[in-house]
Design a protein that fits this description.
Elements lengths: L4 E3 L3 E5 L2 H10 L3 H16 L4 H4 L1 E6 L4 E7 L10 E5 L8 H14 L6 E5 L5 H9 L3 E6 L4 E6 L1
Antiparallel strand pairs: 1-2, 2-3, 3-4, 4-5, 6-8, 7-8
Helix pairs in contact: 1-2, 4-5
Length: 154
């Protein structure tokens, strides 16, 4: 695993180590979420050369308080990773998601072979749609498992 760290004005975003990923899995009480994080860790261990495309990226304030996380759902052969993100309830509405998503998408689009980043959100999640719009994503017209799909190209 390589050590990736991105700093913004207010945030530090870093790819999680195996130890951190295991702690995240163990800390989940909700079964579906625990399984999703377990699948991410398994993907990291199976394809370690793509760790940064499968691992959790933690979002912390510069003071070290964890406010959420992001992740890619792997990277396909067309150079289009899908990003997912979440902010802890008590920190929502402060622009952290927009700041973190924007920074990580900029990072992804600067990587060799990446031509676009994709995302999807539930149809009634207006806050998530606003994050994507502010970060330069546009609707693709396609529907994914969670709802409408969006993309941002180079």
């Amino acid at each position: 695993m390589r050590d990736f760290l991105i700093e913004t004005n207010r945030l530090v975003i870093r790819v999680a180590s195996r130890e951190t990923m295991e702690k995240i899995v163990d800390s989940q009480s909700e079964g579906e979420l625990k399984e999703a994080y377990r699948e991410m860790l398994d993907g990291c261990l199976t394809v370690p050369e793509q760790w940064e495309w499968r691992a959790v990226w933690t979002i912390e304030t510069k003071e070290g308080e964890r406010v959420g996380d992001l992740s890619f759902k792997g990277i396909d052969s067309a150079g289009a990773p899908e990003i997912g993100y979440g902010i802890v309830d008590e920190f929502q509405g402060r622009g952290y998601a927009t700041e973190a998503v924007g920074a990580l998408v900029d990072w992804a689009l600067s990587r060799p072979g990446v031509v676009r980043v994709e995302a999807e959100t539930e149809p009634d999640n207006a806050a998530s749609k606003r994050v994507l719009e502010k970060c330069g994503f546009v609707p693709t017209g396609a529907l994914g498992e969670e709802g409408p799909r969006f993309a941002r190209a180079r």
